[in-house]
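for the recovery benchmark. tokens below, seq after
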């Protein structure tokens, strides 16, 4: 199933995003949101690494921040052709800090998606009722990162340890749960 035809009610996982990108099926939009920052940042950096054009990356990757954005410049870059590469990558960090008028000004991005530009937007508390975010979710892939419930924390710790090729004793997992809690970024450190 193509990324553009995904059902918005179905939850997309980070593994699905990685599988589509690895298979060469880049969606026009990626939206990473939610309060759990560790997983969100990891997927953002992974996507940046794997979507970044190998040729002329300096000319084809642009980063914008929601708290200090020039919407006209973003639209101009979004609609421009990539230089000596198959695609351009536009990164929008802190998208939750966009004001309502800025969101409205960026709606042409979702009204007429570019065939040569991929947008990766990220923010902790996005208002998914806004057209730009709901359309990005519908036309691309949106992953919500939630803080794990305490009963799911041991599983998350074991997964983090396995990624680092570490084996943790059950007592160690219990102590980490007790002392660090649900803050996965602190756990990773």
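predicted aa per position
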């Amino acid at each position: 199933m193509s990324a553009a035809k995904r059902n918005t009610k179905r939850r997309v996982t980070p593994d699905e995003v990685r599988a589509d990108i690895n298979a060469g099926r880049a969606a026009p939009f990626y939206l990473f949101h939610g309060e759990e920052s560790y997983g969100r940042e990891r997927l953002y950096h992974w996507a940046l690494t794997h979507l970044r054009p190998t040729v002329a990356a300096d000319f084809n990757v642009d980063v914008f921040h929601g708290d200090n954005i020039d919407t006209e410049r973003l639209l101009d870059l979004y609609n421009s052709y990539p230089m000596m590469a198959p695609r351009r990558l536009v990164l929008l960090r802190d998208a939750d800090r966009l004001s309502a008028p800025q969101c409205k000004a960026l709606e042409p991005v979702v009204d007429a998606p570019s065939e040569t530009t991929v947008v990766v937007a990220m923010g902790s508390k996005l208002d998914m009722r806004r057209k730009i975010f709901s359309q990005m979710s519908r036309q691309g892939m949106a992953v919500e990162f939630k803080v794990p419930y305490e009963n799911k924390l041991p599983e998350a710790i074991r997964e983090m340890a396995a990624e680092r090729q570490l084996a943790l004793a059950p007592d160690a997992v219990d102590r980490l749960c007790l002392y660090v809690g649900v803050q996965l970024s602190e756990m990773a450190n």
